[in-house]
Each structure stands twice: as C-alpha cells, then as structure tokens.
Amino acid sequence: MSHAGDVVLFGGSVEAGESPSDAALRELCEESNTDDHLTDPEYRIGDHLGRWITESGITVDGFFATLPATFYDEARPDTREVDRLVYLGLDELTHRAPEPQYHRVDERDIQFETRRPVQFESPTVTLFEASTGEPWTLWGAAGFMASRAHRMLRQQP
C-alpha cells in the first residue's frame, strides 16, 4: 500500500546472501545516492530496533545507523524511489514519545477481496525536520521503529 505524502524510512528487500543489516545499509546508500560509501567504516548499522509485520503481510526490520556528518552534505535522493530526504534529529526522537493512534486505510489502497476501510492502531510520532522545522508524522512501520528508537535512546545513560 502506498499513501501520497507518506514519510518512510530507507528500506527494501534483502537480497540472496545478504543479512537484514547489510540490506539496510545497501538500501540507505542506494536511496541516498551514497553508494560509494557502502564499504566506508563510518557508515555503520547498529542496534536492531525490532520487526514489524504490516497489514499487507510485509516484514520490516529496523536498525539504528551511524553516519558521518558529511552524509548530510553528500546525500541526494534517488528520485526513482525517494521524493526527498529529511533529517530528524536524535534529540527530537529522544524527547517526543510516540502515541498510539488509529489510522484508516482508504478503500482505494486496499488490495483485499472486500473494499471496506480498515482501521488499525500503530505507534505514531510527530517529529520536526532538523533544518526547516517542518513537522513529519511517522506511523505504521516507521512509527513503530521511531517508538522503539525512542525507548532505546531513553534507556541509555
């Protein structure tokens, strides 16, 4: 399912012989046009945030990524997959607790045999883009990963 204006995290499929964390780094580099950094030791995938299974049955694994400060200057969206990149600061994620909210999936998005609206609850968090202050609402798998990251960051000393 795709919704216009969705805010999503980098992602894609795990290729043969690839671990989920390797796939996360590859997808991040592909979608941000930083492929030349795929083997750069400053680009690291860290803690596993958890696994989310979407309403359509897709399994999503989330990871923390450690990136050098130069990433923000070098990264450009691969416009075949990404409209634009936004930067959400860790301080935003640390201080804004996700709240469970209900979301309605519109009939036009449903690929089931019935064409009824579906409602589900997911962690939801509104964060503010680091350079513009523009609000971004993360929900579904992205909201779940944001809520897990929030919990992990709050537990660190």
What does this structure look like?
With 157 residues, this protein is α+β, with helices and mostly antiparallel strands. 24% of the residues lie in helices and 25% in strands. Strands 3-4-5 form a three-stranded antiparallel sheet. A two-stranded antiparallel sheet has the order 1-2. β1 (44-53) and β2 form a beta hairpin. The N and C termini lie far apart (38 Å). The model is unreliable at 1-5 (pLDDT under 50).
Q: Which structural class should the secondary elements be placed in?
A: alpha+beta
Largest sheet: 3 strands, antiparallel
What is the H-and-E element order? Answer: HEEHHEEEH
- The helicity comes to 10-25%
Q: Total helix count?
A: 4
- The share of residues in extended strands comes to 25-35%
What's the shape? globular
Oligomer: single chain
From the alpha carbons, calculate the radius of gyration and give it in angstroms. 16 Å
SS elements, strand count: 5
Distance between the ends: 38 Å
- Which residues sit in consecutive blocks of at least 5 with pLDDT less than 50? 1-5
Strand order of the largest sheet: 3-4-5
Mean pLDDT: 77
